[in-house]
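User: structure tokens for this one?
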Amino acid sequence: MQVSFKLSYYNEYKSYLSVMTANSEGSTDSANPEAASSNSVETPPKEVLLNAEKDMLINELVNTKAKEDPRYCNNKFIDMMKCQQNYNFISQLWKCDPEIKQFKLCMQRAFYNTELRDECKAEYLQRKRNAIKRVRELELENEIRRKVMAEWLKKN
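Assistant:
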């Protein structure tokens, strides 16, 4: 009895995950419309971004990636940092001015580079999908634990 009880929750968990995975990929499970409609929060389409995500998070990711990626501004960033290490804070402003200007110009070009922006947007959306999936899995696991505990408490 107890094994079949746990097995039924396991099967429910697997069907829930299949529905959630299908929803997070932008499609709905037509074979199980009841399970798909039972979700209180629907997953937005793949390309939907909030204004805050567009304005802040994607831009921050673009800036970080541009500094770290050798294809963009990593070399200029390293040159600027090497120059700044040789001088104190006040001297850096005029002694490293050419390096700072080159780095800022490179970052500006990278910021408006559509290839880099699309790459960062795709990376952010993938992170977002993974986070949503993890949260839903944890919610389901907690719900199953609550059901098992409630059943156990009824027996005892």
